[in-house]
Amino acid sequence: MIVLSHRGYWKEPAEKNTEAAFVRSFALGFGTETDFRDRDGKLVISHDMPRGGEMTAETFFSLYVQHGRGLPLALNIKADGLQSELQALVAQYEIPSSDYFVFDMAVPDALGYLRREMPAFTRKSELEPEPAFADKAAGVWIDGFFGDWFGPRELETLLRQFRRVCVVSPELHGRPHRPLWDCLAGSAIIDQPGLMICTDRPEEARAVYGGTGVGG
């Protein structure tokens, strides 16, 4: 099981999407998820609407190259029209397509990433039972907004279809995480190389699954 830290590995909520959280995640060998928006013509790291003072995308990728190169990056696209700028930065920092993917875009915006042959994940949830652009996706982001609707059997089917599957851990939606974690931990599916989990508790996930940032 590949473990991704959600907005970096933060210890206090104020550390989310900060240098401290990213460096900690990279140093401990975790994959990392973060959020991209634009402000004044520049890409910045921000989950919510940028208001100034956010980390630039250049700073984030510089930290990655210095501390985390080779670890997987999940780039959550929070605004439309970022394709050309993001593609240029990925090229500038020499990040191969095997080391990152973009996700959460609106479907029309996702087409721009696919046209540029950038690795894009589709989504599946209770509200999205039929993933968009499934035939072109580099993987699938699995979310449970209201409950744990999936288990090892569903994930095995999705791994056969998409090869790469990232599970949103329930605590990201304010639910207890251990019921799903324990269900997955009791299955051989956690040894599948394409399975990932995005979590606010990366060290706990590593203890449960024996995973790292780059493989199970």
Brief descriptors of the model:
single chain, 7 helices, alpha/beta, TIM Barrel
What's this model, at a glance?
With 216 residues, the chain is an alpha/beta fold.
List segments where confidence is low: pLDDT < 50 over at least 5 consecutive residues: none
> Helix/strand-derived class?
alpha/beta
Largest sheet: 9 strands, mixed
Extended strand count: 9
Assembly of the depicted chains? single chain
User: What is the count of DSSP helices, taking H or I runs of 4+ residues?
Assistant: 7
Description of the structure:
Helix 1 (19-27) packs parallel to helix 2 (57-67). The model has no long low-confidence stretch (mean pLDDT 96). The chain has 7 helices and 9 strands; from the N terminus they run E-H-E-E-H-E-H-E-H-E-E-H-E-H-E-H. Strands 1, 2, 3, 4, 5, 6, 7, 8 and 9 form a 9-stranded mixed β-sheet that branches. Helix 3 links the parallel strand 4 and strand 5. It has one domain (2-209): Phosphatidylinositol (PI) phosphodiesterase (TIM Barrel, Alpha-Beta Barrel). 31% of the residues lie in helices and 20% in strands. With 216 residues, it is an alpha/beta fold. The longest helix has 11 residues, at 57-67.
SSE diagram, text form:
Layout: E1 2-6, H1 19-27, E2 31-39, E3 42-45, H2 57-67, E4 73-77, H3 83-92, E5 100-103, H4 107-115, E6 121-124, E7 139-142, H5 152-162, E8 165-168, H6 178-185, E9 195-199, H7 202-209
Parallel strand pairs: 1-2, 1-9, 2-4, 4-5, 6-7, 7-8, 8-9
Antiparallel strand pairs: 2-3
Helix pairs in contact: 1-2
